[in-house]
Write a structure and sequence with these properties.
Chain A: Belongs to the TsuA/YedE (TC 9.B.102) family. The structure holds 2 protein chains of 2 kinds. Chain A contains 6 helices and 1 strand; from the N terminus they run E-H-H-H-H-H-H. Chain A is mainly α. Chain B is an all-alpha fold. Chain B is built from 6 helices and 1 strand, in the order ααβαααα. The chains are: A mainly alpha, B mainly alpha.
């Protein structure tokens, strides 16, 4: 194992902003900032407005940063369409089956001491590590 | 008011995803490459988020029982760790390790206007839909 590209400060501050966003949504509106749950809820029939607003806020922020040139756009040009298709499908199936993704389990769940989220987070990180190791 | 909170929370989230590097699939794959060239940065993204979220919520909860808009704070799910949870997390982890993209960054990356993001998001939506069709009790909530 060698450590590369470590960017501790931007990672920490960026993470704090994510935590602040999740905290705001929970203490102000009593809603969980789990992105997969928010997206799934958009396909439902009730309580869609705030979810749409959240997605709009997220998109506006990244649109501003990318299109103004303040942040570099990560290029996906090297990724095969078939790989993206399968990856997306697995992420969709897995997060709906497991009731959460990196944000819902990893931040909102763990941050409230949920044992389910602790288990889920350990498992999806381990599965991610195993997948990366196998695909090399 | 609820919409404004949602908008602001989403914007903070998006800003954090970009600044932290979590939006960059290469960085995510570097974090998961523990046995190769490892980039530990994303551990600090999670640590930073939890360092704000967990104590913030704890302080709020001890002073107020409810959220600002007046409803109860959502309860933590019963600590039942079942096969569905573990299977779902495994499948999600496998997909995450393939492309280095999870749902939040997928939405944020849509702003980069690359067609590859569209492929990922459509496939993810198909996955949501498929599980919804196959499960009766699938509420999709944490």
């Amino acid at each position: 194992m060698t450590v590369v590209n470590f960017t501790p400060w931007s990672a920490l501050f960026g993470g704090m902003l994510i935590g602040l966003g999740a905290l705001l949504l929970m203490v102000a509106a009593g809603r969980v900032a789990g992105i997969s749950g928010i997206l799934i809820g958009l396909g439902g029939h009730s309580d869609r407005g705030w979810r749409l607003a959240f997605v709009a806020g997220l998109l506006s922020a990244t649109l501003l940063l990318f299109q103004s040139g303040m942040a570099e756009v990560p290029s996906l040009a090297g990724m095969a369409p078939g790989k993206l298709l399968l990856a997306g499908l697995l992420v969709g199936i897995g997060t709906r089956l497991g009731n959460g993704c990196t944000s819902g389990h990893g931040i909102c769940g763990l941050g409230r001491g949920s044992r389910r989220s602790m288990a889920a987070t350990l498992v999806f990180i381990a599965a991610g590590i195993a997948t990366v190791a196998m695909l090399k | 008011m609820l919409y404004l909170i949602g908008l602001l929370s989403g914007a903070l989230f998006g800003l954090g995803l970009v600044l932290s590097g979590m939006i960059n699939p290469a960085k995510v794959l570097g974090f998961l490459d523990v046995f190769g060239a490892w980039d530990p940065s994303l551990a600090l993204v999670m640590a930073g988020a939890l360092a704000v979220f967990a104590p913030g919520l704890w302080f709020w909860r001890t002073k107020h029982g409810q959220c600002v808009l007046g409803t109860d704070l959502p309860k933590v799910a019963a600590p039942v760790i079942d096969g569905r949870l573990l299977l779902g997390a495994s499948i999600f982890g496998a997909g995450w390790g393939m492309a280095g993209i999870c749902p939040g960054p997928a939405i944020g990356l849509a702003a980069s206007l690359q067609w590859q993001v569209g492929v990922f998001i459509l496939a993810m939506g198909a996955g949501f839909w498929l599980v919804g069709r196959l499960t009766v009790a699938g509420s999709g909530k944490l």
